[in-house]
# Entry
Amino acid sequence: MTEFFFELVARWGLVIVALSAYFSCLAVPVPTSAVMLAGGAFAAAGDLVLWQVISVAYVSALAGDQTGFQLGRLGGGWLTKRLVSKPKRSALYARAQHAVGKWGGVAVFFSTWAVAPLGPWVNFAAGAAGYGRLSFTILDALGEAIWVSAYVALGYAFGSNLEALATLLADWGGLLTAVVVAALAAIALVQLGRKR
# Structure
């Protein structure tokens, strides 16, 4: 499947980078990380321009996050009811709601890059919870800068071996998510212990 998206980037360039970054932030299952790696690799080969790949991916990701936030704000109750019928998505949304309720801006920031699979759901949950638009935008922009820059730069640096890199990063992403969740749980336990 990754090869398919590499071919799309080769053919359509920045359009695919933009669409994948936007729709992945709305919980559409698109391998955006692989697309950004491919964009970086094509920039290294001279087929695309590096600053354009980074800019398009960044602006599209921000637009997707803002759309998700606004959808949560306008239709939070409807969204919650709709997700109840889909257990896997309902579980992700419940985790996102818990994260936003407990951690607020920290959840927004880390969900854009460190716990990216939860990111779209945090966007919806933050909007539904009435989280401040300015705070959301600032923290989201900082987190997306890390995510986009890291993946495009890795694609640029290791473009000759994208398949292996995409596989490694998929595994690494799961590990990073587990480490972040474990660290947050440890912090919560320490705070709980101090209160008692």
The mean pLDDT is 83. The first helix runs from residue 2 to 12. Residues 1-194 form one domain.
